[in-house]
Task: structure prediction
Amino acid sequence: MDDFSGKVAVVTGSSGIGFGAALYFAKAGATVHLCGNDTAHNTKAEAAAKDLNLSVSLVDVSDAEDVERWINSIGDQNGIDILVNAAAVQTYGTTETTDIAHWTRVIGINLTSCFLTSHFAYPYMKAKGGGAILHVSSVQGHANQNGVLAYATSKGGIHAMVRAQAVDAAKDGIRVNSISPGSVRTPLLEFAAQTVVGEGNPIEDVIAEFGAAHPIGRVGTVAETSAIIAFLCGDRAGFCTGGDYLIDGGLTAGLGV
Result:
């Protein structure tokens, strides 16, 4: 495990990939500040990390004032070294069926939040001589299924944001990357599976089908995403910036024919 002793890590998304990354950093010695907009997930995360240097806050990552207040409360204490944006919602709709409220919510949580946290954390990272920003995108930013217009747009937008931020931030010693997971066993994936089979029905068969679509034959784990997030935010990845790293079990490497 990497050593993040003395580092301050800020992570959004208190379940799934976000919580996994926060737990990894905390176990590796970092002071971790995690946030989520779901009280139940926040409480569960707090309980699981009770013996670690990890705090959990209720934050709406799509709200600029809420994000600014949270980031400043962290940065004003000990600065910020690492920022990981994993907060996301998975919703469904086409150009025809996606309403404005739906679009605004998805873009706000999945994409605008990446800008807001980066914007407010940047001065603190710059003051410390550099840092690392990692945005969690998705294979659906590269290619997507039917009916995920807002979600796919938000994830594709992250890829463009990473390139722009990396070019701008290099002079200040700040590296910016993203990962694009395929199907990873998280509450978000379980929501997607439940959407397929209907409320109250078993979802394990659907999740197995999701896994079978990947050449490696299974869905990924949060431990696997946490490991690559930690690598990209650590010193060993010092020459990595502006990139997107697939962690998709070969899903985007093949042709569906």
